[in-house]
Write a structure and sequence with these properties.
5-stranded antiparallel sheet, 274 residues, 8 strands, alpha+beta, 54% helix, single chain, flat
């Protein structure tokens, strides 16, 4: 079902429109960013359009993998918060866990044919977008963003549905006049606690992968102190990013992070009470 819908999405011009809107968004974002930067304004809210643009500093950390894993192993939580990729194991090690259930990410990739790519090369605008004032650029961005999100939602849903296609699972590739669909699989991932008995400590510390997004949760639970965290990571870069989004989406993100902070606060209080 999903595969037929994907083909229809491409044949009726929706895929081409999706890629055009994606490129329009990239270009408009860059133009809006440059203009806002020239105004030396960190944040602008275009209330009449329901859009906000903001410069943010993002800290990039580099972790000492072995030190972090050893620390988490010593306090007893490494096995339950990590996974091990099959690509990090030797053939002999893979043999030991051949019977253990593993998770593998599956996804679909579409590669347009050269002829189809040529047909997609059309002007993004029929006028000089640089001549527009900032508000008009933002209005165009919002319109393009609405179209992109609608089309991209359909495209992503149908790609997920197509993954169950017997035709794709059997052949792995399906070529037609507009391009090729490829069925791809990532490395197997084992829950560390499910394979713990099959490896020694050195292998576990070498191979286990921590989801770094969970580091705040781990610290809030009291497992790691700020001092310990400082000892296993260092700042490698501070990136200046430009974010433009609808006010509605910004509100949703803030509500999500407020909920996350409350959860972390409860975790911290629970650990302290114990």
């Amino acid at each position: 079902m999903g595969l037929d819908e994907l083909k229809r999405f491409i044949f009726d011009g929706s895929y081409m429109e999706l890629k055009q809107e994606e490129e329009r968004l990239r270009l408009l974002k860059n133009l809006i960013r440059e203009e806002q930067d020239s105004l030396d304004l960190k944040r602008i809210v275009w209330a009449e359009l329901g859009v906000v643009g903001e410069f943010q500093n993002s800290i990039v950390y580099e972790y000492d993998h072995d030190e972090l894993n050893a620390l988490l192993y010593n306090i007893g939580i490494l096995p339950v918060i990590t996974c091990i990729k099959s690509s990090d194991l030797t053939e002999e090690e893979l043999g030991r866990v051949a019977h253990v259930p593993a998770h593998r990410k599956r996804y679909l990739r579409f590669t347009p044919s050269n002829h189809f790519k040529q047909s997609m090369i059309i002007p993004l605008f029929d006028f000089n977008v640089n001549e527009l004032d900032l508000l008009d650029k933002v209005a165009m961005w919002k319109e393009s963003n609405t179209k992109f999100e609608r089309l991209n939602t359909i495209w992503q849903i149908e790609k997920l549905r197509a993954l169950v296609s017997l035709e794709l699972k059997t052949s792995k590739k399906l070529t037609f006049e507009c391009g090729t669909f490829s069925f791809l699989e990532g490395s197997k991932k084992y829950r560390t606690d499910m394979v713990l008995e099959h490896f020694d400590v050195r292998t576990i510390i070498r191979c286990a992968r921590v989801n770094l997004d969970r580091m705040d949760e781990i610290r809030s639970r009291g497992f790691l102190s700020k001092h310990e965290l400082a000892g296993i990571r260092r700042v490698v870069n501070v990136q200046r990013r430009y974010i433009i989004m609808t006010i509605k989406k910004e509100k949703m993100k803030k509500e999500y992070w407020c909920s996350k902070l409350k959860q972390l606060s409860h975790l911290s209080q629970g650990e302290n009470a114990e």
